[in-house]
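Entry 0007
Protein: ABC transporter substrate-binding protein
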Amino acid sequence: MNAFSIGTVMCLAFLLLGCDQQKDVKKLGLVYCTETAPLTFNPQLESSINAIAVTSRHLYDRLVEVDPITQQLVGGVANNWQVSEDGLRYRFDLRQGIHFHKTDYFSPSRNLNADDVMLSFERILDTEHPLYILANGDYPFFNNIGFGSNIRKLTKLSESAVEFELKRPDAAFLANLASDYAVILSAEYADKLSQANQLGQLDQLPIGSGPFYYVNQRKDHFIRYYRHWLHWRGAPPMQQLVFDITPTSSIRLAKLLTGQCDIMAQPAANQLEVLKAREELLVSVQAGLNVSYLAFNTQKPPFADVRIRRNVAGLVNKQRIVDSVYLSTADIAAGVLSPSSWAYRHQSRSPEQDHLVYPYVEKAKQDPIELWVLNEAKSYNPQPRKTAELIRNDLVNDGYQVNVRLLDWEVLRRYLRAPEVNYDLLLVGWSTDNSDPDDFFRQQFSCDAVEQGYNFSRWCNGHFEQLLNAATASPRLADRVRNYYKIQKLIEQDVPVLPLTHALKMYSYNDSVHGITWNPFGGVSFNNAYRK
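Output (structure tokens):
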């Protein structure tokens, strides 16, 4: 990167934040260069893990949390919980003295209590709730996992206790409540907005109880938070936290090199040598709980035929993708589930290979195939267009006709929710939201997820549904693992998707910054971050 381009980045940064604000942030806060701006400040409504990484853990608390080191569930807003012997009732006792944010647009008169928990989940469960109607019932995570369909009743037991009653046991229930989507909102704030006929602001001018509170933003450029002095875990050391929204990796790198950013999300593989050459910059690398894959539209010929899916799967050169796109910062995926998962089933051989020439294969080659591509760099695929071209070349070399179509996420999601979609192949991927495999499988491969537009293969398999429900019905880990093994074997045999890679998650940051916690499911915690 030349001096002119670096200088241009510096000028832009000063124009956006202002000289005094830049100096203020450098002394009192941190600037994190990230790739995605949230569409909303309420994670319940978001579908992008990268986007909620800007909001959820900083602005809000959850009933329970996942310890980023041990991966065990720990108390959040609830300091303890009890589960009935039949696994159907979950009682949560809430902490006392949790303060909501005080901002220019809202001053709370009370601490967090059961009313806030009730509001946060009733808006998802009650189809007649004003907030449910306002959101058109579009709660991507909760709809994908069928959250509401298994809740028989949500009850306020007292000012400091609530109870969920389930219709059937669900061993993944607590993990789902610990996800970044299951945030606790302020019922008092919602009441105030409702009285002013401004209820929509609840999701755009956020009030939570997390370690930071919202101050201002310039849309698609930056978002500024201040520390929440009264956070129940203690106030963060840094007074300010600024998210610099920079979709282009090369510009994020320039800002890191010039000191405009302290932390950079997801550097490209070809930038690692530049980063290693700078002594003041460090690189954090983690095994990612993610997968990139090629999804077959199983509801539309030719890929309604598993034999054609197997044929095409056998043509794709995964090693070339790892070498050319990831520069060896990813592992070849043998299956959909990451080896980092406790339910991972080692696959000694790939059942999908089928290079033999049959009449049905030759017939499939007569008509052009539509390959749709999510044209946004993601942690699981930094260069989707290049990946698509490599796949296209592999298929064309074997006689298939392939047209590549690039789509951004919002356009693609609109198409995916239509009753019929015209793609044949879809190059996408997934980063898991929590450590429970149910979250991973249910959101991508269940029949409910077809309607929601997140089952990218549109594969609906009754045996899979039975195994998935059996896996969550048992509290015994051995039973769950056994069913997840069967699920992985079923997916391997039926090939609704071709797993391609498991990408490493990378961040780069200045060595003056300490105390950062990297969340294995995405995002960064700055609760204990400080500058030295």
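Curator remark: The first helix runs from residue 3 to 17. DSSP finds 20 helices and 22 strands in the chain.
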